[in-house]
Design brief:
Length: 148
């Protein structure tokens, strides 16, 4: 397993990810995705993105419950992300994982499956040693969107 993903902590980063409107809704979580900005004059964008880190932010609103419930949901999402993303999330993307009411009650394996499905549906899935490429050889850029 690779290093833990870096964290998104600034509101503007969360808003940038939400602004792309690329998301997948699963029973236990919502995953939003935004590719990193291309540096000026980058000739080979795909090769550049493979070296970029994965950055992840977490959010759980008050609709989910009180502070104790929200913190528990956030910890569960963090554990799922640390299990799945270092090996399988395409590099060069920012991700926001949003907790839902079912996050706290959902079995851990089901939450893991929700995240894996979301990564695949957003085109951000990669096999363990695949560098930054997903199963179809792409990097996840320009894939089908879910407006779910």
């Amino acid at each position: 397993m690779g290093p833990a993903p870096a964290r998104l902590k600034r509101r503007r980063d969360f808003l940038r990810v939400a602004g792309t409107r690329r998301k997948w809704v699963a029973p236990g979580l919502i995953l939003q995705l935004r590719p990193h900005d291309a540096p000026a004059g980058a000739a080979d964008r795909a090769a550049e993105r493979i070296r970029e880190p994965i950055r992840v932010g977490f959010t759980v609103s008050r609709k989910v419950g009180g502070a104790v419930v929200r913190n528990r949901a956030r910890r569960r999402l963090l554990a799922v992300v640390e299990t799945v993303m270092p090996e399988h999330a395409a590099r060069g993307n920012d991700y926001v994982v949003i907790g839902r009411a079912a996050t706290v009650r959902r079995p851990f394996q089901a939450l893991t499956g929700d995240l894996e499905t979301a990564l695949k549906r957003l085109g951000a899935w990669r096999d363990g040693a695949g560098g930054g490429r997903n199963a179809d050889g792409g990097t996840g850029a320009g894939t089908r969107r879910s407006t779910g």
